[in-house]
Amino acid sequence: MTSRVYRLHSTLELPLEDVYEFFEEPELPVEMQDIDITRRNNTLIISAIAADESMSKYTPTAQLKASITENRVYEEEPEDRPGGPGGGGGGPQWGALEDEEEEIESELVEYACFKGDRETVLQNTALQYPMFEVLCELAKVAEKGTLTAVSAVDGELRATRIVDGEVRPASVNVVEEPNEDQEGGGVNWRDNKFIS
Predict the structure, then answer these.
(1) 3-class SS at 17?
(2) What contacts 24+ positions apart, CB below 8 Å, involve 35-41?
(3) I want to staple 8 with a disulfide (CB 3.0 to 4.6 A). Which of 86, 101, 118, 151 is the partner?
(4) 26 in Cβ contact with 134 (< 8 Å)
(5) Domain residue extents for the chain
(6) pTM for the full predicted model
């Protein structure tokens, strides 16, 4: 029986450098021989390469898709700056403060943002579950973001929840969807005599 991912939602953000480092020597599931990383403008595509040689080379294998954004990262601001918190000087020093104020050092860092639902983040069905396992390992090294999913392994539903790199307890709740034949109190727009 094959494993599948039914629902997935991700808000993971990782520095692009960390993603490349993660895939330098990854521990891949046995179904995957390797991965291929491609960058197209502001999109990062991580594709699975099947270990099964009988799989056609034209079969689209699972891929992770992330958008790439640039964020300015600032170094910590010193606490004992003149005029700042903990700094001396009770009154304003208009001219002097402007000259003495130091620039806070910063740099632009590229981030890979695995954000969206299953079809946005995890695409194609061949090797989908092994690639999902790779995404879970990637989520464990992410300092920011959440990954939630419902998958089936050997016919058993499993819930996954990883928040800011930490695996959290999760459960699957089955709720009954309202049927069409139940009166929902809504307007039936198709058979409405006031609309022609």
Answers:
(1) helix
(2) 35/134, 39/68
(3) 118
(4) yes
(5) 12-74+107-145
(6) 0.74
